[in-house]
Amino acid sequence: MKSDNLFKNIAVNFASRIFIQGLAFFSSIILARISGASVLGNISLAVAFQNVFNNTLSASIGNAHLKLYNENPKIGIRTFAWIALVSRTCIAIFVVLLALLLLYTKSTLYSEIQLYLIILFVIQTVIGAVAQTSNFVFSAKLKAYKANIANIIQSVLISAARVIAILLGFKEFGIANFLNVAAALSIIYPFLQLRSEDWGNLDMKLARRYVSMSFKMISGALCFALLLSFDKMALGAVVKVNNAATLGYYSAGSSLGLMFLSLGTSMGGVFLAVFSKNTGQNIAKNFNILGLYERVLSLLVFPFFLLILVFSEEVIRIVFGHKYLVGNLVFIFSLLHAYIKTQNIPLINVYFSLNLFKRYNLNNLIYSVSIIIIILAMAYLDPLHSVISSVALGVLLTAFVERFIYIYNLRNKELSVTYLKQVPVTLLFLALFIGLKFVVNYFNMPEWEKIVITLLSFGVLITILVFTGVYKKEDIDLARKIVAKKAN
């Protein structure tokens, strides 16, 4: 019964994430096509700053509540709500003061319009504290529907406000103000939800436990926040005022990869739940699960990703428009990064199942530093002679760094062998993709020829792999089971 409840909650969370990401992606398309690349670039930079603080605070303080509630379900929510609001307010005040200082000193790090937008979007983070509090309060009680409904309402209102502002002809400031009004309206429902909960008293001793627990969990949250946002923050500082459109082209290309990444990250809860059950002598089961997961990704998911990337220009042209083709390499690198990151997610959860928290935090520290160094280096050195493509390549490289760190620090021979088994097949598909990209671009093939030669090439390779025993009957059966479960 508990298992059914767990996977029901996971399914609800997964569906909610898809819906929310779909809304955000749709409104981004409207923004890119109607308002243009410059407006998209300026807003994406402000959202990047918003996400760093919002994701870091939500994940660390929220996860602290999940743990403390599991220890004592009788604790009220007043202390948690107070900590959540105060922390967001303090961070917002700091960012606003920093932005005002940059404006006062006429700093050229970011443009004036970008700094004002950062202020407006960080204020939205404070407004959203109520919805985030509601989400974690009901997540702790395994009430997935109640936990997600506030986020869904908030996403619907914010996406609708963005589209309305765009259609009415508003630019950056008008859109930002519409979003803040929508965020204010979105707190009504979660506030009504929380009124019937046990608030309890404000407990300063418990508050210190929240702070202490949050700091223990903040490394992973900060790491993921940097991964989502630091590329745009670095680009904003490099491309400067006259090239806000460049940041817009990057945001369009990377947003497609982020769609797939968000779906991959939703798998984390599944693996954490499964891995946590396998302790002691059952730890070997975790490595078997990782091996199966890697095999499914390498043989079933990776070829599908590459098929999409063969037609990357067509995808960008259809979704965003012809002028965004400059972000083609960004889309390719972003989607490859989403694939590698999806591979890494269950590996990270092995550390929790083994209670390797210190090693986990050390890994995240190294990974966070690598994100900053690699992305800044790629932005300023620009080895591809296209700053947005260079930064996107840097983001892809950080996924390989993360993969190496987590595999190496486990130092488990069985795990290393399990992962290395799929490398040759992955390289074969990658070589085919690179070859196809070169051929179709060099000969400038029409669309129908491109489709035929791509499908034939993948079909021949997969047929060879079937007859050589790389693909097995179990893989086909597993694919059918996955499709059947999705259909149900």
Automatic annotation (TrEMBL):
This is Oligosaccharide flippase family protein. GO terms for cellular component: plasma membrane. It comes from the Bacteria. It is found in: Cell membrane. The chain crosses the membrane at residues 14-34, 80-103, 115-137, 149-168, 174-192, 213-230, 250-275, 296-312, 324-340, 361-381, 387-406, 427-445, 451-471. It comes from Mucilaginibacter celer. Its main location: membrane. It is a multi-pass membrane protein. Keywords: Cell membrane, Membrane, Transmembrane, Transmembrane helix.
